[in-house]
Amino acid sequence: xxxxxxxxxxxxxxxxxxxxxxxxxxxxxxxxxxxxxxxxxxxxxxxxxxxxxxxxxxxxxxxxxxxxxxxxxxxxxxxxxxxxxxxxxxxxxxxxxxxxxxxxxxxxxxxxxxxxxxxxxxxxxxxxxxxxxxxxxxxxxxxxxxxxxxxxxxxxxxxxxxxxxxxxxxxxxxxxxxxxxxxxxxxxxxxxxxxxxxxxxxxxxxxxxxxxxxxxxxxxxxxxxxxxxxxxxxxxxxxxxxxxxxxxxxxxxxxxxxxxxxxxxxxxxxxxxx
Length: 274
Hints:
By secondary structure, the chain is of the alpha+beta class. The protein is 35% helix and 20% strand. It has seven helices and eleven strands. The strands form two sheets. It has an eight-stranded mixed beta sheet, sandwiched between helices. Strands 10-9-11 form a three-stranded antiparallel beta sheet. Strand 9 and strand 10 (250-253) form a beta hairpin.
């Protein structure tokens, strides 16, 4: 997590002010470009990022992006689509360069765990202690049910540098590309950028995961639930609409895009992923 809480609150304040000012003073991209680190990142990484999208057959900036992370393989994937409801295409896989804790979800403050589940980017932090960073919305609706109710922890970021106490470090070059793609997708209309974090690739539970979960039955049930979301995307290359029931279990539905009616189970809480 970020070491300096002041920088986090400065980033949150900047994010709120940017959101208020967008209609008056230009796009989210324009607002972010006011920060020196973001401008420097554009000078270093923008052209390479555009080349990556071109090689994948997509124009830049994208209408939507998606981040998918795997703890066991130490990988972070960047996916993108040219339309709101189009299939996503993988742009690049980045190495996660350090880790803390063990396999399994984050359940309390100070456990050093990297969360597992279905999240979205909640804050863009150009003041990060680790170059640039993107905060995820841990604890989400499921975590608030399954984690310590008083002290579940928080301040989980995807960031630069190569140190971590519960966050996801990618080094400075990769975080520049992901940060810029996220800024430009948001400026291009994507309100929430989903981040799915898995213990490992879950087409079939790998032996490492199976052996680890056998000693912890609740963990096996949790991972089987995550596997449903993994397989949904693997099959369709589209993101599901995700709801959370009163037991903290995720449910996956075909996404409903603007202009279509949205029907949810009455007891479900909404976790939007597009």
